Amino acid sequence: MAYRSQKEERPVERASVGIVADMVRQFADPYAFLRELVQNGIDAGATALEVGVGWDPSGEVTVSVADDGTGMDRATIEGPLLTLFASAKDGDDSKIGKYGVGFVSVFALAPRRVVVETWRADAAYRLTLFPDHRYELEEVEVAAASERSASGTVIAVQVEAGEAELPAFAARAEEALARWCSHARVPIFLSVTMGRETQKARIDRPLALPAVVTIHETDDDFEIVVGPARGSRHYGSDDGFFAGFYNRGLTLHTTRYPPRASLSHLQFKVDSPRLQHTLSRDDVRHDAAYHRVLERVAKIGEGVLRERIRTELEQAALDKDPRRYAALLSAAVWEPPQTIVLPLCDPLARAMVLSLTDVVVDGRILWSDKPSSLTAALAAAGIPVVHAVHAEVPLLIDGIVKATVARAGQVYVLAVERDDPTEHARAWTKLVGEALRVAGMEVGRVALCRLFDRGASPASRVVDQPGPRHTLLREGGERLGAWLQRDLLLDEGDPAVQAAFRLAGTSARESAALLARYILAESQGQVSAAQSDQLSAFAIGEAP
């Protein structure tokens, strides 16, 4: 037997050698015993389990697991429970445990004692295990033991500790249950008693992923949920590959390292009675069942999940739902650009969404965080502007295509000509045009305008296609040659224009010459000596 019987003389010291001690050391997480006890309860047919954590004035913290399963008879206690590698579960695929070693994990917390109470209709027993691996087994009255249910088992691990240590025990127990038992097929409750107050929380939850889109499939052998690896950060989790393997909802293994490169863009969880953990309990066995799972996940990822992402992305683009659209666009970066749909600030040929390839114009994709007069004017000119409903949208687009991704206001500006210029303003802008022509620049009409949705802009703009009121202007410091035979619009909000206009009140020709010099320097990079002389002469009225 793994434990010495009560008939032997019990030493005082704690056992640190022997097969039981060796088996205890295999559990890297000392609280993994909760997984083992929950597993045993599920295997015993429990309909619910309750984990309790509390402190006793005698100086002990007790961590217990209670179930309403079938309970144990004396033969089970003295055989499979207390004898290593003699599990009654061998050959039974309906059971999770296989090796008969899980129960020894109750010693991982170095307890003062472990008390097992178990009962059936015909008998009840109390088993007490000590640190030296001896035990005492006694039969008790069935009526006293079975007040909670017709049958069941309670295993209490009693650890010497002060009351101040109780919160740490409770936190570690909750962490272990969430890690190992979060998807258990039966309800699991954690009750923490501090003084007279008891707080109760449910641990188990459905098999699910924090992904923007998931595909859930079940059959006789598997329950599988698959989602994209990217976009989860918008739903409170980390982006990246994740795989979880479970049996009856208990964790066998989780990993963030893809077993196959072709699965790296996915995350998934699978629960199956066919999956088993390794003897060391640090991995899932890579057997035929495991490989069937991976094949099924790959098929879902390439088929129904891919189609669902495309459909949901288009709907989110139409809805302009910021978080959902950003998460779906993150998930869709693996898709071909022509299948990725983007929302528009303004309709283009009545369409409010276009594919990623259709919004590229002249090797550039324009975007804006909101519709505006500029985006409307661009749409009227046949130039789509992507509506960046979330701050990540431009960055995600930039990571998918080779085209330049730019804010619309950094490439174009909307100029609205003043419709009520004063006589003074008309006379002054006429003088500015004359000064530029004197210096050799062939410009047409000069007028004041307001610029909308602009980025960093110079004082003057050249009209690409002259219009009566609204004009799209291309940013970027065009060369002098691009100005020829074009009207010139002066930005009334530019400091240089404003300063020159104020000076016009005392010396209109001088202010016109100064602004012309500024415009020439901006367009040419410098003003030639001849141009400088011509403008000086114009300022004093000597030039024609």
Total of DSSP H or I helical runs spanning 4+ residues: 15
Give, in spatial order, the strands making up the sheet with the most strands: 5-4-3-6-2-1-7-8
Q: Would you report the number of β strands?
A: 23
Radius of gyration over C-alpha positions, nearest whole angstrom: 39 Å
What proportion of the residues form beta strands (DSSP E)?
25-35%
Q: Kindly report how far apart the N and C termini lie.
A: 118 Å
Q: Which percent bin holds the helix content?
A: 25-40%
Tell me, what's the shape? elongated
What does this structure look like?
By secondary structure, this protein is α+β, with helices and mostly antiparallel strands. 29% of the residues lie in helices and 26% in strands. The protein contains 15 helices and 23 strands. The chain has helices spanning 19-24, 33-43, 74-81, 142-145, 166-180, 288-302, 304-319, 322-331, 373-380, 393-400, 408-411, 423-438, 495-503, 508-524, 529-539; strands spanning 49-56, 60-67, 113-119, 124-129, 135-140, 152-160, 188-194, 197-202, 215-218, 223-228, 242-247, 250-255, 266-271, 341-348, 351-355, 364-368, 385-387, 404-407, 412-417, 443-452, 460-462, 470-474, 486-491. The strands form 5 sheets. An 8-stranded mixed sheet has the order 5-4-3-6-2-1-7-8. Strand 14 and strand 15 form a beta hairpin. Residues 1-13, 15-21, 85-90, 92-100 and 456-485 have low confidence and may be disordered.
